[in-house]
Task: structure prediction
Amino acid sequence: MRKLLYRTLALSYGAYFNSTALFSEKEAGKRAFKTFTTPRKGRILPVHQEYLQEYLGKKILVNNTGLQTYEWPGTGETVLLMHGWESNAFRWRYLIEKLQEREFNIIAFDAPGHGYSEGNRLNVVTYANSARQLIDLYRPKHIIGHSMGGLATLHNQYQNPNTSIEKIVTLGAPAELSELMAHYQKLVRFNNKVLEALDKHVYEHFNYRVHDISTPKFAKSIAQKGLIIHDEWDTITPFNASERLHQNWKNSSLIKTTGLGHSLHQEEINLQIVDFLLS
Result:
């Protein structure tokens, strides 16, 4: 029943965008983008609060949005963690245990519209800008991004190559924003006029076309060492996204897992990440 209701809601959005485009394609693009960038979950739940409360850091103001940070102090090198869509810093708890065992200094934060952070929406460009501000503030040597966090990490590194970052880890990261948009169009079933209006909206507000947001493109100019981890059966982000990324990232290694899913928070994954950071 829940799946049916969700499907009906999705199709109603598509019909709404298509009808709006009959009168104003610009308005249709604006509304389609708003829906695409509005998370439905990812805020702090009681089980998250119990763990995160002890590690609350300061709120950092980025583009007039307060971002909640978390700190696990250590005597070693600093690592910055970036979660994925509709998630929050709680998702890193198992990796944090392994990083603490090796005395890493750990910083995490909730993306705009997620966790304890302010805002109601999130897109790749604003998330990459958030990463840049946190990198400038904490000067981490390493950054780890899961899913959308990985995409935003690489986008920021492409835009700002001269940072403190020496090693990058991506987990189940998508390759192309255009592929995510195509999936969105298929799910909601809006027409090509709406898709074109959506692309124009992105360009007008961020000076990027949708096809410009591409990890294989970003990777060609990234000099840092990279570890790419992706499950071959990932049902959220296809494995070939990381294959394409690896092909263009000269200084990267690709680990293919089987049956570990999209989250990739298992102990074997966390140990491989720690080994890479220590190597």
